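Q: Sequence in, structure out?
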Amino acid sequence: MTRIQPTATRRRILAAGAGASTAMVAGCIGGNGGAEEGQLLYTQEVTPEGDFDPIVSNDAYSVQIINLVYDGLYEYDFEFELQPKLAAGEPEEERDGERYIVELVDDAEFQNGDAVTATDVVHSFTAPIEEETENRPEYDFIDVEGTEAVDEQTVQFDLDHPYGAFTTLTVATYVVNESVRTNDPESYNTDPVGSGPFTFEDWSSDEFVELAGWDDYWGEPQPELETVRFESAEDDAGRVSQILAGDTDAIGTVPPTDWDQIEAEDGIDVYRTESPSYQYVAFNCNEGETTNADVRRGIAHAFSMSEFVDSNLGQSAIPMNSPIPPIVNELGWDFPVDEWESEAPGYDREEAERLLEEGLEEPDDWNPTIIVPPDDVRIALGELIASRLDELGYNAEVQSLDFATLTDTYISGEASDYELYILGWTGGPDPDVYLYNLFHEENAGVTQGHFYEGSDSFHDDILEARETAGQDERRELYVGVIDEIVSEVPVMPAYSEHNTMAAQSYVNGLEPHPNVAYNPQLVSGETNVSIEE
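A: Exactly. Output:
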């Protein structure tokens, strides 16, 4: 499972990064005889949790449905850049980044016929704070009293302090119908009214969600599809079997080990795009031998991450040497990634042996525990690290834990529970999502379990960058922070996994979006998915 949008919740960090496994499947491909014109069956990787109110939902697979029912104030295009949707243009900045003014388009409507107004936008941005939902950390810097509707088409956002990612992250918020939602919030969560191209028709927990194309959609283009049905197959082999047998029109996440097989089949197309995902190996910096940076460096030198990624993920992922995914860096940050690559610990068995012998206080009694989530790739990574440590004379153990148990374990900070853990995070196109949530001390024991104390300025610099509007100033602060992460290795970056999909060839216009919550992107200014007769 993969979470989206920056929020300090343990649930989101644990779920990042869908697992990949080899699917042993047999069967033949059904042609387009199983497809009906205008009707799409999409098989998700994970069952939605059933919260379809954007103010409440913190689950990527529910948000994939939300994305079709609601329009955002701004929305990401396929280049991962924000474009106005319900907004008429770019935000107007005032008061040195502590106030933004946004004008709305004048013809947007909700699916019940209500006009989309500035009051609806204000409610969408302030309700997570006032109601203390799980999404509150994304909005905590908003001044609720100062954020108001200037008139029906003008919104004023006041911030408690400048927030550099406001115009790259926060403004991509879905807009709810305030009057309908506040009249019956519980009903709104399972029977939503949005302004997007599809209406919410029906759902059954753990079974399906059904949407219908909205004939009176205010935006452009009008949806080609008449209906969309979401079902799920959490087992990779199950999804692969379905697409090969023609039992579904499209699936999310193609397991790397099955990519070649599916791509070689007639009548099926496979798709891949970079995403802002970040998988990593974290070290317990609170207790145990891995509080010593030399021990952490020794472990990092004991194996080759790039060889692991190449062998286990192939073209489905990119090795990383910093906590900033490549797609984020390419959006104008221009970080010194080549320097970090050269400085990061690479495979060097002799150096690993030396650092561990010198750094371990009790080498004869060191039996580190590596905890991982229950997916094949991250289990394989944990086992690779353990085997290399075993070769060096240390008896490492890998424990694959379900997400609930892993949550309770990695936040403990106790060496008896773990000294390494492997997890992932998927955020948006701004470094704040990764550095504040995964490294700032405020989130220790919440979205991070490494408890890294850092240098005197480490946490201050992360917070200062978060509260600074200018990108140049933020970049300078972030470079220093990441320099320290690369050098001291509280976390070892692993890889950024791509978003992938497969679809029957009669599905036209489908392509994966960098933001996993936008998949499948069925209607936008760049695409309009249809079923060929």
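The longest helix spans residues 471-488.
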